[in-house]
Design goal:
- The structure is a single chain.
- The chain is an alpha/beta fold and about 450 residues long.
- The protein has one domain: Alkaline Phosphatase, subunit A (3-Layer(aba) Sandwich), CATH 3.40.720.
- The protein is about 30% helix and about 15% strand.
- It is built from 10 helices and 18 strands.
- The strands form 5 sheets. A 9-stranded mixed sheet has the order 7-8-6-9-2-10-13-5-14, sandwiched between helices. A 3-stranded antiparallel sheet has the order 1-17-18.
- A hairpin with a 6-residue loop joins strand 3 and strand 4.
- About 50% of the residues are buried.
- The N terminus is likely disordered.
């Protein structure tokens, strides 16, 4: 039988990379100074529990969370975060002022513009990968895809590092069209317990309610019997398969007890109206509900930005749907006191070409585009990095996927330079060749 060799969460399976290799120098600073707007204050401390899958001394954890918006297909930076009006590449969209003097974004994002004082634009992203699949992989893992190894995605790493051991809700939730409660496959060597559960935002996960007519006492006896048989079976050898099954079953039971958390209809009519009675509005409201209930990582998918044809019409519709719910969620997280505990990231697999093709579309472009961050330990009301006048290349503050991945972890208080020990191998949590973007962290 296959033995379970993934990182099991015991203290001896986690090492600080710097401790393992000796006292190394910290990350270097690079890029331009941050411009515009005040910087955020200190991050508010949380519960002080030790995270699962990490040694006690590795993180004096706060009650931190991560929220990712995946603009699947390739959001155009020129129609969103880095407009170039009046140039031959700029297209018809104007730039509008934001709540931070000196920072302008596209007129397609008027509500988000009013939340700019909570956000940070990283306008110098260059990932040099124009393939959808490979681009998505490197943005989610911080590494390039290779046949030699599989790396865990940011959701799985966040769930392992930030979830409380006794947490009743899953730590890694993906809100995406068509999600019905199935498990993903993002955790690689971290083990199946950190894979995602996919939801569509419309209703609680399938089969999360007890069958009608089954008495509580009968249900209790069933689980007691199952636990006894499981213990007997596991005493003869723990395997990756049995461990995954046991964890999934136990998590399903806990999820059944908290199924109301997944029901956005429990929110007030006024909140449902503010977010919008459409799929994306409900998904953002569900994200708020999950984060408010302590879920460590939530990803919301908004698709499809692969605009090789009719780029401007598509972005008018897509960003029109995205803008108000996203801005409402950022504002609500701040009002609820959760933004200082929640890293917000808006990413894609790449941007879109400054050149406008003969179909009025923009093609794949990874050499100069934008990722947005906010909350947690990220500088507020800031713009880091810059592209040239026509958006064809980065001229200041260039960063890549590896640096971004390190920065996501550091922003929620996780030492991104530590390593896990898995099956006798040292596996760095993030790409050891990259460093965090220290200038966007406070």
């Amino acid at each position: 039988m296959q033995r379970a060799t993934y990182a099991c969460g015991t203290h001896e399976h986690v090492l600080r990379r710097r401790g393992f290799l000796g006292a190394l120098a910290g990350g270097t600073l690079f890029g331009s100074a941050i411009t515009g707007g005040p910087l955020a204050g200190p991050v508010v401390g949380g519960l002080g529990w030790l995270t699962q899958g990490q040694a006690a001394e590795a993180l004096q954890a706060r009650d931190m969370r991560v929220l990712v918006f995946n603009m699947h297909g390739g959001l155009s930076q020129l129609e969103s975060w880095d407009p170039k009006p009046g140039t031959k590449t700029g297209g018809p969209c104007r730039a509008i002022p934001t709540s931070v003097p000196g920072i302008h974004i596209s007129e397609l994002l008027p509500y988000t513009a009013q939340q700019m004082h909570h956000l940070c634009l990283l306008r110098g992203v260059n990932t040099a990968e124009d393939d959808h699949g490979k681009g998505a992989y490197l943005m989610m893992t911080g590494r390039r895809q290779t046949p030699a190894a599989e790396y865990p995605q940011i959701g799985s790493v966040s769930a392992m590092m930030l979830s409380k051991k006794e947490q009743s809700l899953p730590g890694h939730i993906l809100i995406t069209p068509g999600g019905g409660g199935g498990r993903g496959n993002e955790s690689a060597y971290l083990g199946p317990r950190f894979n995602s559960i996919a939801l569509d935002g419309q209703k609680p996960p399938l089969y999360s309610a007890k069958p009608d007519g089954m008495a509580d006492e009968v249900e209790k006896r069933r689980h007691t019997f199952r636990e006894r048989i499981n213990a007997e079976f596991l005493s003869r050898g723990r395997t990756a398969v049995t461990d995954a099954y046991t964890h999934s079953y136990e998590q399903a039971l806990r999820l059944m007890e908290r199924r109301d958390v997944f029901d956005v209809n429990k929110e007030s009519a006024s909140d449902q109206e503010r977010y919008g009675k459409n799929d994306f509005g409900r998904q953002c409201l569900l994200a708020r509900r999950l984060l408010s209930n302590g879920v460590s990582f939530v990803q919301v998918t908004h698709s499809n930005y692969d605009t090789h044809n009719e780029n401007f019409n598509f972005h008018l519709e897509q960003l029109g749907e995205f803008d108000k719910p996203f801005a409402t969620l950022v504002s609500d997280l701040h009002t609820l006191g959760l933004l200082e505990q929640t890293l917000v990231v808006v990413l894609s697999e790449f941007g879109r070409t400054p050149n406008i093709n003969l179909y009025y579309g923009r093609d794949h472009w990874s050499k100069a585009w934008t990722v947005v961050m906010g909350g947690a330990k990220v500088a507020r009301g800031a713009a880091f990095g810059a592209t040239n006048a026509e958006g064809t290349e980065v001229v200041d503050g260039q960063v890549d996927h590896g640096a971004l991945f390190h920065t996501y972890l550091q922003a929620v208080g996780v030492d991104s330079e530590q390593s896990l020990m898995v099956d006798g191998r040292e596996l760095p949590l993030a790409d050891p060749a990259a460093k965090p973007i220290w200038k966007v962290l406070v």
